[in-house]
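Check the record.
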Amino acid sequence: MLDEYLPTESEPIGIVLGTEDSTPLAFWVGVAEGSYLQLDDSVLVETDVPGRGTVRISGLVQEVRARHEGLTLDSDVFLVDRGVLPAGIAQAALVVATRFEPEIYVPPLPGQQALRARAKDRDEALYLDQMEHKLGGGLSRDGEPIYLDLDFLDGSRGAHVNISGISGVATKTTYALFLLYSMFHSEVLGKHRTNTKAIVFNVKGEDLLHLDKPNSKLDQDDGRARREYERLGLPAGPFESVGLWAPVSARAGGQAIPDTGGRKEGVQSYYWTVREFVREGYLKFMFAEAESERSQIADMVARVEMFLDNESEDDPHHDACVRLGGRTIESFDQLVEHVHAELDDDASGWRGRLAEGTVAAFQRRLDSARHRMGHLIWGRQAEDPKGHRIDWDASQVTVIDIHNLHDKAKRFVTGVVIKKLFDHKERQGQRLPLTFLVLDELNRYAPREGWSPIKEVLLDVAERGRSLGMILIGAEQTASEVERRVISNSAFRVVGRLDTAEAERSEYGFLPAITRARASILKPGSMILQQPHVPIPMQIRFPFPSWATRHDEVAPPSTDDGDVFDKFKGD
């Protein structure tokens, strides 16, 4: 295996070709017999510049070719195979320059020796020597560590990560969790590690409800995964500090029982009280589907929120309730009925001058929301007055499960939590300690077209979160369907397996043509990483998760053989 032997010194690999143009940006290297170059290998060439001394040109292999020399017809290869025609095999690699030391932009000259960069030479080619805070981001194709510059992630010089790829194959969420694991189980965050938090939404199945359990399938591949963690300086195990939250069950008969599947122990339930709903203005998140910017529904929602807040009084006997029109509102159903009554009363002023059709559309959606998510709004407290509130300070990683909820309820929970978290960071008024927000299906919450309250909050996170220390790690199947401003504010772009048609969209313009083609055949566990320091993207892989990603990985390991990533379908 390539990662079993990693030389510590740069080694001669060939010479610069003279039959192809050599430019400061790209040049071809003829690969010597008995050697090889593969995609993403680091290459170093030193060239003398008159009067300026030696210039070190570093680059990455972008393309590799092999062909017979001296032949003219395609069928000649069969004659060569039978020994009738003499021909030699020539291998060559296209190297794209990444760095010049010193910055004198000259091409390497034909015939100059090319080295496979190792150790400090490789660090120089990938700018690792200029990273003050290195975050383990994975391994290169030949098994050497690849690092991310934390300064471009923590808001010092940039922020945010965007991950794209096909569902079930690209392992987008798994890579997002690996980045968190790398941060929380290394010293890269320094003294701020303990207080750094992450909020993760579990949107599919129970994949993320077992982060605190070790993965029983970690050692299936003869300990390879453990060795990969060691190469990155990381322990192999579960997340150390995890809080699990699930929505209160609608079938629990008024008891605060979390609605989960296979995971029962260690999961807390969440809901919101009527008073919180009214005072915090959460009504808007019940209307979180993207609307045309010309739609008046948003005006109607804002108007109703204002009247609810202005005309309600806190009930002195019930912390979870409010009083409206002299009546204590003890349930979400009662709140909805009060809103209907006010809107049906022409003298109340609640509807203003909005069209009848707009008011009717608002009422229909409010009724729909009542049936889909009304169980999340309570008019009473559990025994612990604060027990229902998601507490992200209690654990380093807080998993908020929404996979069992209707789509409307998913949007509501996501919008409320992100808004509350953003407001909390604004009140803190400082960047450190950091808070990471991991959100899959970003195209649902920040779509390219239309407006919604969740999209507005996510745009705030993308554009102002850097200064507040709120970092978005967003994932989606198709970046072309996500709001451009969210994507463009991401310092790191990561791509897993891509649909061929999607790869041709302009959102992937940072990928060279050859890399776009590679993205359509990536295996699970392999990603293409674009980071600020390195001018061209490169393929990386990350270790198999050392934490359980589903219930059966907590159980005894399976005896089924095969590639571990082929067994992993969580995304």
Observations:
- The radius of gyration is 28 Å.
- DSSP finds 15 helices and 23 strands in the chain.
